[in-house]
# Entry
Amino acid sequence: MHLHKYEKVWLVFGLASLVLFLLIIGFAAFWKGTHPQSHIETIDPQNVEANEAFQPDHLGLTEVADGKYVVNIVASAFNYDFGKEEDGTATKTIRVPKGSTVLFQVTSKDVVHGFQVAGTNVNMMVEPGHISRFESVMKNGGEFTVVCNEYCGIGHHLMFGTVEVY
Amino acid sequence: MELFNFTKKESRLYMAFMYVTFISLLVGGLMGLLQTLVRSGKYTLPFNIDYYTILTTHGVILGLVLTTFFIVGFQFSLMGKTVGISDKQLKWGWISFWVMLVGTVLSAWMILTGEASVLYTFYTPLRAHPIFYIGLTLVIVGSWIAAFTNFRQLYVWKKAHKGEKSPLLAFMVVINMIMWFVATLGVAYSVIVLILPWSLGYVATVNVLLTRTLFWYFGHPLVYFWLLPAYMAWYAIIPKIIGGKLFSDSLARLAFILLLMFSIPVGFHHQLTEPGIDPTWKFIQVVLTFMVVIPSLMTAFSLFATFEITGRRKGYKSLFGWFKKLPWKDVRFLAPFVGMAAFIPGGAGGIINASHQVNSLVHNTIWITGHFHLTVATTVILTFFGIAYWLIPHLTGRRLTPRLNKLGIIQTFIWTIGMTIMSTSMHIQGLIGGPRRSAFSEYAGGDQVSTWISYQMWQAVGGTILFIGILLMFYIFIQLAFFAPRGYEEYPIAEEELDAEKTPKILENWYLWIGITVALILFAYTIPMIDIIKHSPPGSIPFDWPIGRS
# Structure
């Protein structure tokens, strides 16, 4: 098949850029370990309490080491359960100091939800039967809105929380 | 090149698909307008209509109904023009039309009564009314009937023309329909075997991840199913409109073959942030996704090569002099050209979305909505409009008058302005975290959310301009179908250069190309599918109440 000379140049240039691009994201993924979240860890959506992390007492923020935190969250239509405050009311805000490492662990009791800490790259699908995990270093201070970004029903836009980095 | 003239009976079939297309445009567009108004925060829907009902209608009507009807109708006309259609095939064409239409009506009935507010992705375990799924199945089955009728048309032609190469456009139609058939097998299996029995209550639970994976196995080729008819027009019709010849028959065929191969084994890039799929396999599908860049680059090159060759042949010598002399005042050229231009930022955005890690910044934000309003709602739709300007009058025996041509140019400008405003503000809002698929909400309040709302106002401005564009397009359609003066409008199909190189025979080796396509699909999906089934969690029971069903 005949290809024009300029077309060959164009294709070689395009393909070389493509290879370079793929090498960069491959390097980031396999050498730097920055894969998107994938843990293939399952859970019974009708009995999430069977998993220790998602028992009512273990929900919300826990400091596991100096500057290291775990946040356990159960998503359901149309709420994120961040656990309870000392006075028994539902927690709506997670507060962590700037520079801390936070591991978000989320699962769903009912339908598919999203979990995005807007303005950061913490962004996961939350599916019934699976545990979603993503660890992030909170480098920037401020208030970040947690939004459900996958349609979960007619109250989808009322499902949110807040992460405050101070 | 031998071209067939349409009989009245034939034209009626192709027009039937066009009527559904343009009614869909009006209905779906109205829903789009209402959405942008609701999201601006300044407007509440009347009669207790739910935002997500109109969102579902917008997605299903424009994403599945309008596109499929236009494409099947347009492709039937391409086959009819290049290889002909027999009475029996015509009858099957009508059967496909009616099956698709009945399916559409069933689904629409369920959506409009609030029994199926599940959006066009219908993710389990949200459960719509079973009739919604039956309707979708019929739309797909109807399109299969069309696909097999197209295959039969080419087969009959080949038998009568032993040893000749098939007409380019018929070849392209067959490629698109093979891809469509292979891709829809996934969603058909998901709906018929997994979802339908579960929604009827015969099966207690469903594997959520499996249905999602099968959906996206179909969901990405779906966007190429939209794009390929636009490519057909760019490769083989636009050159004729600008007074040129086909750039290269074999290059066009090779690009289509590559698109067939690399359109399907790529669905995981829609699922990059899912918890249940191995990251290595996600990465492999990301690499396969990027292979689509190759035929896209080939297409870009050959389009501009055609433009330049044609311009220089008309005597314009300076480096870009030929560019000025393109027929800018001919809407049959202008509208698709704007579409091509929009595909440059659209394609670049696609590369970002499909990137292994960068995706997490934009996944499910309204950036994605901005992206497909550039690619589908601008590139593809403007090309479809560009086709409609000559196809409709050709079918109805009328003419695209200078006045209608001018209105078409105004329509193209309105569309471009509206989409630029809407899509740009969606892209920016997405980058700063605004979610897609959500009604107006102030969430937790605060500074971050307040920055989103101003962009939602701009989306309403863009949406309103676009709706004016839709009204104008509908008016032009009605004129071309019923009121334009009688006459003859050309069906423009470009010819090869007289000294064109011979197209290699191997490009028509269907066994080879379908074989490689299947092999790539098996490579990309077999092990992850085994994984998904082996590591499947307890299934999910159905949920009706979250979508407002009692």
In short: Residues 429 and 452 of chain B are 6 Å apart (CA to CA). Chain B is about 70% helix and 0% strand. The mean pLDDT of chain B is 92.
